[in-house]
Every structure is written in structure tokens, then in C-alpha cells.
Amino acid sequence: MFTRTRRPPLHDSAATAHHAAHDNPALLHHFAEESQQRNAASLGMWVFLAQEVMFFGGLFCAYLIYRLKYFGDFGAASQTLDIKLGATNTIVLIGSSLTVVFAVWAAKNGRRSMLLINLVLTLILGCAFLGIKAVEYRSKFVEHHVPDLGFHMDEPTHIPGHPDIPVNQRHAEMFFSLYFIMTGLHALHMIIGIGLFLWLLIMAWKGRYTPQYNTPVEIGGLYWHFVDLVWIYLFPLLYLIDRHP
Amino acid sequence: MSDQHEEHSSSLGFYVGIWITLMVCTGITVWAAFLDLHQFNAAVALIIATFKATLVVLFFMHLRGAGERLIKVWVIASIFFMLVLIALSMADFGTRLWS
Q1: Hey, where are the domains in chain B?
Q2: For A4, which DSSP code?
Q3: Residue A98 has pLDDT above 80, yes or no
Q4: Which long-range contacts link B62-70 to residues 24+ away (Cβ below 8 Å)?
Q5: Is B12 in contact with A105 (Cβ distance < 8 A)?
Q6: What whole-number distance in Å separates Cα of residue A2 and Cα of residue A217?
Q7: Are A234 and A189 in contact (CB under 8 A)?
Q8: B99 or A227, which is more confident?
Q9: What CA–CA distance (Å, rounded) separates B36 from B41?
Q10: What is the pLDDT of residue B2?
Q11: For an interface test with A, which of B61, B76, B79 has the most A Cβ atoms less than 10 Å from its Cβ?
Q12: Which residues of A touch B86 (CB under 8 A)?
């Protein structure tokens, strides 16, 4: 997606020769004006994100069906997740979304050092998220809460609000299957996002982004916000169900 | 185009305001999860999450003030078809005589 909008060399390429009237060398020859080029690129990212909505939508639908089917067992399995770590990760991700909008703003306004600082902060927060996630995954392995790897859930023994109904181990295992698939795919998106932002950082360091040309920062930001958005739904659905006494 | 540019360049404090709202909403979600709202716990959690998602999409992803109207069509279409996906799946699930 980025190759289409990559800035051509500054010296006399065909694109710049065709558009001698424009002073933006980043304008590719098949676009009439900068705004058209920018809109085409960002529409491309939005179309990709629409596909992502369907992709995660299918997983959320699977979650909804099993949550309704194994209602109490899901509630019991959810109690084993650490709300403090989940909430910290939510705060970390929302914080990274703020640094991303700052980075986009800085790129549009030609503030190079502000752009670099915010890209670095985003990367740090992204890595912090993955680090906390790794701690959570580690404890799930230690507690044998990983589906199919000798899965057994010792605590809680009963369904929340129903002390007389024991937890069905297979149903609880289904919760953890969905937990690992959904958070795992989300973490994969985070890893890809960190890769993208490393690339943006390198390009920003080289001074490629100007107020006239900053599309990669903008659409990289769209991707990052979308990943944040998925977590906004994952957090309550996985960590915060049936918590009330 | 010009109004879009204004939106971008005049709003650092506004972004911080949105961020604070998102943080407060996160706090409310956690707090509400420990209240006994009977069957409405999930609904409250999803309403808050949707409110947060709306803020992110409108202001952080600049959907509000987007130059291209086609982008809005894509956003609405993706939400609509996700709801179709869920609604038809639930219609199927709800009308099967599963044990």
C-alpha cells in the first residue's frame, strides 16, 4: 500500500517534469492534485480496515455465540484473567493512540522533532503493551490455562452467582481458545504496527515527511487506531464479564 | 480541503481532551463491571466501548472532517455488514434446537 505513494526522487523524474506547475515532487503523475492523491491513499487504508472489521467481526460473532451457549463457564474462566494487567494495557494503548495523533499532527505541520518523539513514544508504548501481554500469556501457561496443553482450570470451581453449579472444563477451555485466538491476532496486529512505525520512524528521521507529503504517517496512524479500537472491545468482553459479586 | 487542514492544526488540546475522555470511560467500564446490573452488565460495557470507539474513529482517525465522502460510506458499510453477519448468525443460532 505504501509503494504506490512512495516519494519519487527529488531530481528530474518524469513525474516532476509533468507537474512543473506544482511544487510538490511527491505528487505522482496519475493524480491531478495533492488532495486527490492523499484521499486515494487514505481510502485504500479505510477499505483495508473495512476488511479487518469483517475479520474481527467473525471472531466477535463466534465469541458471542459461545458466550451465550456456555454463559456461566465463560464468566468463571474470565475471573482467572488479571483485570489490573488488562486495564493497564488499555491505558497503554489509548496513550499510544494519543502519541499517534500527535505524530500525525506534527507531520502535517512540519514539526520534525515532535514527529520523531511521538513515533518513538508510540513504539515504546506498543512494546510495553506486548510485554504486559507476554506476562499474561506466561501466567496462563504456568496455570495450565492453555487449551489442549494439559488444560485444567482449578479456580474458580463454580459458576459465578451459582455456587451449586460446577464449572465444565471443556466449556472453560473454549473461553481460553477464544481468548488466545482474539488476543493473539490482536497482538499480531500490534507487531505489524510496530514494524510499520519503525519504518515511519526511519523515514521521518531521513526527513521524508513534509506538510505537503505525510500520507504514510496518516494512514499508518489509521491502522494503529484501528488496532486500539479492537482492544477497546476485547477488554470488556474478555476481562470484565460476570465480575460483580 | 481548507477546513480539514484547520481541523488538524488547531486541535492538540482537543486531542488531549478526547484522550482524557477515553481514560475516564475506561475507568467507568471497570467500575461498572463490579456493579450488579443483572442482565445489563454486558449492554453497559458494550455501550461504553462503542462510545469510546466512536470517539477514536471520529476524532483520532479524523473521520469527522474527512475530505472524501466515500470514506464515510465505507465505514458505514463495514459496520452495517458486520451487524448483518452477527444478526443472521444469531438468528440461525437462536432458532436451532441445540441441546
Answers
A1: 1-67, 68-99
A2: G
A3: yes
A4: B62/B4, B62/B7, B62/B8, B64/B7, B65/B3, B65/B4, B65/B7, B66/A42, B66/B4, B67/A35, B67/A38, B67/A39, B67/B1, B67/B4, B68/A39, B68/A42, B68/A43, B70/A43
A5: yes
A6: 10
A7: no
A8: A227
A9: 7
A10: 43
A11: B61
A12: 57, 60-61, 64
pLDDT tens readout for residues B23-65: 999 999 999 999 988 889 999 999 999 999 999 999 999 988 7
- Please, are residues A5 and A41 in contact by the beta-carbon 8 Å criterion? yes
Does A101 touch chain B if contact means CB atoms closer than 8 Å? yes
Q: What is the ipTM of this complex?
A: 0.88
B57:A228 CB<8 A: no
Domain boundaries, chain A: 48-239
Assign B76 to helix, strand or coil: helix
Q: Give B39's DSSP letter.
A: G
Q: Give the dihedral sign, CA A112/A115/A117/A120.
A: negative
Local confidence band at A7 (pLDDT 50, 70, 90 cut-offs): low
The three three-digit cell numbers of residue B81, written as one number: 455488514
Residue of chain B minimizing CA distance to A224: B61
Q: Does A127 touch chain B (CB under 8 A)?
A: no
Q: How far is B60 from chain A (nearest CA, A)?
A: 6
Q: Under CATH, what is the fold of the domain A48-239?
A: Four Helix Bundle (Hemerythrin (Met), subunit A) (1.20.120)
Contact A27, A33 (CB under 8 A): yes
At residue A31's C-alpha, the angle toward residues A217 and A219, to 5°, is: 15
